[in-house]
Design brief:
Number of helices: 21
Radius of gyration: 24 Å
Main location: cytoplasm
Pfam family, one: AAA_lid_14
CATH class of the largest domain: Alpha Beta
Keywords: Activator, ATP-binding, Cytoplasm, DNA-binding, Nitrogen fixation, Nucleotide-binding, Phosphoprotein, Repressor, Transcription, Transcription regulation, Two-component regulatory system
Protein name: DNA-binding transcriptional regulator NtrC
Bound molecules: adenosine-5'-triphosphate
CATH topology of the largest domain: Rossmann fold
Low-confidence stretches: 124-140, 464-469
Subcellular location: Cytoplasm
Shape: globular
């Protein structure tokens, strides 16, 4: 039965659906194959044995999904089959369930919900045929650091990864808090389950509750279908709550209760959901001070802060700057398909002297600019200065673009152009997306969360053909 007992198959004649779903599943660490019709999937079943799980569309040229379901159930009765269809009438859904479908997904569906469904459908670790137990490959996420503070931190990560304790990671913006959370997950017995990150500050307060705990269809205006929250998505794995200090008071109360009880209701739901989630929280704020002022619940702080890991700012570990810079420059050149570059000695000294208010992220972004801008293979001080001047930090004036936009709009209106709004909106989307994707080096999920958008929205705006990491 070779390796297919650990793979997920997608049967759909729509290439875009296969691509988007496969990419989301791969990001969650699964091995995935796509088939454009039932015949090919059945042939593979004969040759390679059953996969761990199968998604199928209903209406396809040739045999339809329900016939496929029937044949699959005869050949591999245990195989969980998720039926997807744009036709959500009772006949189709009932037909699917009667045929033994594990779940029915109405198209278009939420990719995160599909990933969460897979986590639920597949047997727990160690039982039977489970999916490939690999954390998603995250290029460039290896923590670099030779300074005593970082070495001590790495030792703590190794020790803490094994215990399911809550961890609070503190440190300025861009110091690597998320990277540490990922390392804690990757080294833990939960590594084969999802790592789900949520930036509390990036989501509007009124959406945060349903983002965390999910909602049922009809729970509020605009809730057209069920949404599986991050807690459920992270079941068995790790939930990373970034910028926890920005969480509104009412949600702090709810979070505390969920952490204490390990169960909750989706917004507007009646089904009690039990989850097993390790929570890792992060903040750049002084939560003790916020708690003393009554702006953060002290009891929630105690619960999150079972162990605290502090990331020192980069200016306090300048010995790490050269290694980080060389690593980022090499990675950027590779990704840009440019020849490898190196920093001259004087340039490294200049980098060490910089005070890095944006910490490692600022250094990483600077290296990307240098890789793109510096003409020679050896990067000198002058190249660095140019890249530092080009830093968005140095030139951002929030009012600039509004004024420019107003000038543009006035000129176009005076010129008699119509449909300005659509054009401006498309440009705005494009610019925001490009900036976020550049910042996250092409990682869509993260780019979406930086923009406060759902990943599906980003995927839709980009279209399935755009290159992604
Ligand atoms: N020690 C490190 N080694 C290698 N890369 C690092 C290190 N620390 C941070 N980075 C990189 O710097 C960037 C910022 O890191 P990360 O997102 O983890 O910071 P953060 O503290 O969570 O930031 P924020 O508080 O703004 O969310 C990432 O691209 C990360 O890969």
């Amino acid at each position: 039965m070779a390796n297919d007992a650990r793979r997920i198959w997608i049967v759909d004649d729509d290439r875009a659906v296969r691509f988007v779903l496969a990419t989301a599943l791969r990001e969650a660490g699964h091995a995935v194959d796509g088939f454009e019709n039932a015949r090919d999937a059945l042939a593979a079943l004969r040759d390679r044995g059953a996969p761990a799980l199968l998604f199928t569309d209903v209406r396809m040229p040739g045999e339809d999904g329900l016939t496929l379901l029937d044949k699959l159930k005869q050949a591999a009765p245990q195989l969980p089959v998720i039926v997807m269809s744009a036709y959500t009438d009772i006949a189709s859904t009932a037909g699917a369930f009667r045929g033994g479908a594990y779940e029915f997904l109405s198209k278009p569906f939420d990719l995160d919900a599909a990933v969460a469904l897979v986590a639920r459908a597949l047997p727990e670790a160690g039982e039977g045929a489970a999916v490939a137990r690999v954390a998603p490959a995250m290029p460039g996420t290896e923590l670099i650091g030779e300074t005593p503070a970082m070495r001590a931190l790495f030792r703590s990560i190794g020790r803490l990864a094994q215990a399911p304790l809550s961890v609070l990671i503190t440190g300025e913006t861009g110091t690597g808090k998320e990277l540490v959370a990922r390392a804690l997950h990757r080294e833990s017995p939960r590594a084969h389950r999802p790592f789900v990150a949520l930036n509390t500050a990036a989501i509007p307060a009124e959406l945060l509750e349903s983002e965390l705990f999910g909602h049922e269809a009809g729970a509020f205006t605009g809730a057209t279908k069920r949404h599986v929250g991050r807690f459920e998505q992270a079941d068995g794995g790790t939930l990373f709550l970034d910028e926890i200090g920005d969480m509104p008071a009412s949600l702090q109360t709810r979070l505390l209760r969920v952490l204490a009880e390990g169960e909750f209701f989706r917004v507007g739901g009646r089904e009690l959901i039990r989850v097993d989630v390790r929570v890792i929280a992060a903040t750049h704020q002084d939560l003790d001070a916020l708690a003393a002022e009554g702006r953060f619940r002290a009891d929630l702080l105690h619960r999150l802060d079972v162990v605290r890991l502090h990331l020192p700012p980069l200016r306090e570990r300048t010995d790490d700057v050269p290694a980080l810079a060389e690593r980022f420059l090499a990675a950027a050149a590779r990704k840009l398909d440019a020849p490898p570059k190196h920093f001259a000695k004087a340039a490294l000294a200049r980098l060490r002297a910089h005070d890095w208010p944006g910490n490692v992220r600022e250094l990483e972004n600077l290296c990307w600019r240098v890789a793109a801008l510096a003409p020679a293979d050896t990067v000198g001080v002058a190249d660095l200065e140019a890249a530092l001047r080009a830093s968005p930090r140095a030139s951002v004036d929030a009012d600039d673009w509004e004024a420019a936009l107003a000038r543009w709009a006035r000129a176009r209106i005076e010129a008699g152009d119509a449909d300005l709004h659509a054009e401006a909106k498309a440009k705005l989307d494009r610019i925001l997306l490009d900036a976020a994707l550049e910042h996250t080096h092409g990682h869509r999920g993260e780019a979406a969360s930086r923009l406060g958008l759902g990943r599906n929205t980003v995927t839709r705006k980009l279209g399935p053909g755009r290159k992604r990491r």
